[in-house]
Amino acid sequence: MTQEYIDGLLALAIAQARAVKIPVSREIDPHVCLNRRARTRFGCCIRRAGRYTIELSAKLAEQGSEDAVLQVLAHEVLHTCYGCSNHGARWKGYARRMNDAYGCHIRRTDNYSGLGLEDDRPVRYYVVCERCGRRIPRMKRSALVDHPERYRCACGGALRVEEAGNGQEKTGKI
């Protein structure tokens, strides 16, 4: 997608929000900033000196569908509303309004498969449920990877960590 096309999608997201009476800011930069380093974040709304800049992952812009890009832009546009810098009740209400009006799937968080992208990030660890066998990929160390004993799977099972590729279980600190 070209820069002009993406900027047009931003204008569309803003117009759609305003059409359903969502009070988005009038201080949104009309040009989307493409982030070439973003690997886990698809979009970002940055406020500086009372103006908002919407940032979009270059990977999403290059490989995502028009619907996926519009969904992420709409998500970020909602952050320009008063009281919506987080994903609280007001932001969720506006997201629901957009979803109902336009058939969007704006959510608090999204993932590669939800946006129709291939996740090519290297998996370093798998958190594995001892009960149901679910394997949760992890790209970097985290509290879950360092201390799986503090967490439970959705099924209630205990978790353990394996390094990707060698199948060996890790215990304690990695």
Explain how this protein is built.
With 174 residues, this protein is α+β, with helices and mostly antiparallel strands. It starts with a helix and ends with a strand. It has helices spanning 3-19, 58-63, 66-78, 89-102, 143-146; strands at residues 33-35, 43-48, 51-57, 125-129, 135-138, 159-163, 169-170. Helix 1 (3-19) crosses helix 3 (66-78). It is built from five helices and seven strands; from the N terminus they run H-E-E-E-H-H-H-E-E-H-E-E. The strands form two sheets. A four-stranded antiparallel beta sheet has the order 5-4-6-7. A three-stranded mixed beta sheet has the order 1-3-2. It has two domains: 3-115, 2-Layer Sandwich (Zincin-like), CATH 3.30.2010.10; 125-170, no CATH class. The model is unreliable at 167-174 (pLDDT under 50). The radius of gyration is 19 Å and the shape is elongated.
Quick description:
With 174 residues, this protein is of the alpha+beta class. It has helices at residues 3-19, 58-63, 66-78, 89-102, 143-146; strands at residues 33-35, 43-48, 51-57, 125-129, 135-138, 159-163, 169-170. The chain is built from five helices and seven strands, in the order αβββαααββαββ.
Key terms for this structure?
alpha+beta, 18% strand, 4-stranded antiparallel beta sheet, 174 residues, 2 domains, Zincin-like, 3-stranded mixed beta sheet
